[in-house]
């Protein structure tokens, strides 16, 4: 009997968690750049942003996932924190849909849904790029609710266990214990909605009482807030502001409703519990309403105090300089309707990115050593974020209907951004190898000479991108002529002078000179591509 009940519960929980993960993962895959474009548009209106958050929360069933999607949009400079807050706020309310559905008898619907999903798999729709995420999400929904049904069956049988009844009787006199348990379980499960659904299901089965379930639900919100703090510990600047806001949202409703809970229990004043009883729902329905009330109260509180909250967020997580480097300044989604204009903007963004490349060498060059404005790692991370946005922009642009001339130019510009991305990667790799090793005086002098040479050519490359006339492009081609013989002679010279050069330093020598050659080759390729691009334009 015990093994059967536990097996039913565990299998139900397993199916439920698998379903939640499948739904979340596949919905996030469906929420690609198009999703982000919609978000950037709807945030122009506070009510549209809130409505979009409500819908997103209902679909993804994870306010934390939506928070971190918003964080990525803020990091990319697509939306401002102030305009993103309504999305986060109302996505939490949208997440209540799953809790409300958990108390309904939709078993027949779920069985038909699983049957239809199985047919989709039989027809190999799960392998179709167009339908695979939708098919996976439908499977997740079916497993999710099938798991809930098993949990209800197992929970009903648990009432027969005497030891469990004693524990539940004890917990009725220690609401704080239940509250803490809800927070801890949610911190581990990383979803207040998931834990609340299980709690509501157990309440509907009569396994736990109304008071206990209310405190458990309140605890899940606190645990979700703590989990957001933990997951966002590596964030900085405006991106961290969004994560902190989600934590404040989760805690605000708890801070108000927990005192009201104790006031209602010990004074008899009719408040939240009495309000749910008026609905006439069963225990499960009442607890689902409690969860909904908690989210709505939190949403109202953060909306009322939005101005002081924004000021607090700016104090706790002021914007960083890295944000300015990682955000596009010229890429506008509206420009996608005009391919030639969009390509001009990509070229401007490419120039802006390339202008920071000479700064990579500040930590190596004699005249700037120790005075670098930003660590190479920071510049690299910001550049990678910007390149990702540029690549997404170009992907959307190339999907547009364009003239033959615009298409040819688009291919050339995309090749250009690809070469610039490779150049950035190579520069960072070169710097990283130099910083990661200790060199002799003779080797250090050679590295300084290479850095000065590279800096001069990088500055010339910036000039060529800014003014791609024949003279500047010919200068780049002359400066980036084949360096293989020069590098080979340099390696031999160092090895002759440093007869006892350690093996790790010899490896570093070969890596530095090989990457140096690659950097010059990439700059030459860029110059040749620019020459081809602008000769066609003429």
Fill in the keyword field for this structure.
single chain, about 550 residues, mainly alpha, Methane Monooxygenase Hydroxylase, Chain G, domain 1, 24 helices, elongated
**Structural class by secondary-structure content:** mainly alpha
Q: Please report the total strand number as a whole number.
A: 0
Residue runs with pLDDT of under 50 for 5 or more positions: none
Domains counted in the coordinates: how many? 2
Distance between the termini: 84 Å
Radius of gyration computed on alpha carbons: 30 Å
Helix content: over 70%
Largest sheet: none
SS field, number of helical segments: 24
Following the backbone from N to C, one meets helices and strands in this order, namely HHHHHHHHHHHHHHHHHHHHHHHH
Global morphology: elongated
Give the overall average pLDDT: 80
Strand content: under 5%
Quaternary structure annotation: single chain
Descriptive report:
The termini are far apart. α4 runs antiparallel to α5, α13 (237-267) packs across α15 and α23 (484-497) runs antiparallel to α24 (503-537). Helix content is 79%, strand content 0%. It has two domains: 2-316, no CATH class; 323-537, Methane Monooxygenase Hydroxylase, Chain G, domain 1. By secondary structure, the protein is mainly α. It contains 24 helices and no strands.
């Amino acid at each position: 009997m015990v093994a059967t009940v536990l097996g039913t519960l565990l299998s139900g929980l397993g199916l439920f968690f698998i379903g939640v993960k499948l739904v979340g993962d596949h919905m996030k895959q469906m929420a690609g750049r198009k999703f982000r474009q919609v978000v950037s548009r709807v945030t122009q209106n506070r009510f549209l942003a809130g409505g979009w958050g409500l819908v997103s929360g209902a679909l993804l069933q994870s306010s934390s996932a939506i928070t971190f999607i918003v964080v990525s949009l803020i990091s990319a400079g697509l939306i401002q924190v102030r305009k993103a807050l309504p999305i986060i706020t109302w996505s939490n309310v949208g997440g209540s849909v799953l809790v409300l559905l958990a108390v309904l008898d939709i078993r027949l619907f779920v069985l038909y849904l699983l049957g239809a999903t199985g047919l989709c798999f039989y027809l190999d729709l799960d392998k179709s790029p167009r339908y695979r995420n939708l098919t996976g999400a439908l499977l997740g929904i079916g497993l999710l609710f099938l798991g809930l049904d098993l949990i209800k069956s197992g929970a009903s049988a648990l009432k027969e266990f005497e030891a469990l009844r004693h524990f539940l009787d004890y917990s009725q006199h220690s609401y704080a214990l239940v509250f803490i348990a809800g927070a801890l379980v949610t911190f581990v499960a990383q979803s207040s909605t998931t834990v609340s659904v299980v709690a509501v299901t157990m309440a509907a089965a009569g396994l736990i009482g109304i008071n206990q379930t209310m405190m458990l639900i309140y605890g899940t919100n606190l645990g979700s807030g703590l989990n957001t703090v933990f997951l966002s510990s590596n964030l900085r600047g405006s991106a961290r502001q969004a994560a902190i806001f989600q934590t404040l949202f989760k805690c605000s409703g708890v801070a108000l409703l927990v005192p009201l809970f104790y006031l209602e229990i010990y004074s008899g004043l009719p408040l939240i519990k009495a309000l749910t009883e008026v609905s006439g729902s069963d225990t499960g329905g009442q607890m689902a309403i409690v969860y909904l009330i908690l989210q709505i109260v939190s949403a109202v509180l953060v909306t009322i105090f939005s101005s002081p909250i924004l000021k607090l967020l700016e104090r706790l997580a002021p914007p960083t300089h890295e944000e300015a480097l990682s955000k596009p300044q010229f890429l506008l989604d509206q420009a996608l309707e005009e391919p030639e204009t969009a390509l001009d903007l990509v070229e401007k963004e490419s120039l802006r990115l390339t202008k920071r490349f000479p700064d990579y060498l500040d930590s190596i060059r004699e005249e700037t050593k120790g005075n670098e404005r930003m660590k190479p790692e920071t510049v690299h991370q910001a550049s990678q974020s910007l390149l990702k946005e540029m690549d997404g922009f170009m992907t959307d642009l190339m999907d547009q209907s364009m003239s033959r001339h615009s298409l040819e130019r688009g291919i050339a510009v995309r090749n250009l951004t690809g070469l610039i991305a490779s150049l950035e990667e190579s520069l960072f790799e070169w710097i990283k190898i130099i910083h990661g090793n200790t060199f002799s005086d003779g080797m250090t002098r050679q590295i300084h000479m290479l850095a000065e040479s590279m800096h001069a050519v990088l500055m010339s490359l910036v000039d060529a991108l800014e003014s791609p006339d024949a003279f500047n492009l010919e200068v780049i081609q002359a400066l980036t002529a084949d360096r293989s013989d020069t590098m080979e002679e340099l390696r031999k010279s160092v090895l002759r002078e440093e007869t006892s050069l350690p093996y790790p330093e010899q490896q570093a020598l070969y890596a530095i000179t090989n990457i140096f050659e690659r950097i010059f080759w990439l700059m030459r390729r860029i110059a040749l591509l620019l020459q081809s691009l602008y000769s066609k334009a003429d």
